[in-house]
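User: Some background: our group keeps a shared notebook of sequences we're curious about, and every so often someone picks one and asks for a predicted structure to add to the entry. Today it's my turn. The entry only has the sequence so far, pasted here. Could you supply the structure so I can complete it?
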Amino acid sequence: MKKLLVLILVLSTLQLSACALVEKVNSSVDYASQATEHINKLSTFAEQAPQMIKDAALNPETKQALENQLIGIKKDIEQFNVKSVPTIAEDVHQQLVDKNRILLDEINKVLVNGHLALDKLQNSQIIMTITDITVLVNRIQNLIP
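Assistant: Of course. Here's the predicted structure to add to the notebook entry:
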């Protein structure tokens, strides 16, 4: 009878350990996926922005679209920065948050009273900061076991 109880206890412990491990893996995969998606959105903006900036000088609709994208990016960054993070991703998340804060500051400088100041955007470091952020993709993808 004691052997059966010990066996049940051991099996239960192993099952709980396996569940915890699966949960950690799942949260790491979820975080890596969300962080990669966040960085991909920024990267897409960085690719499109130079042409949009040129077009925005002549086309008010393009300027409005650019402004809307920057406002959307700002909201995405604010939501991403407060995201719950698995322990394994804390370091890379903090690096991403630090770079996101720099990007937020730059976006706030070009959005004067909630409206895009095109001349400030042309002289900003937004694209360079996004490029710095995209470097973190490899570290994030390495979180997945």
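Suggested note for the entry: Confidence is low (pLDDT under 50) at residues 16-22. The CA atoms of residues 16 and 22 lie 10 Å apart.
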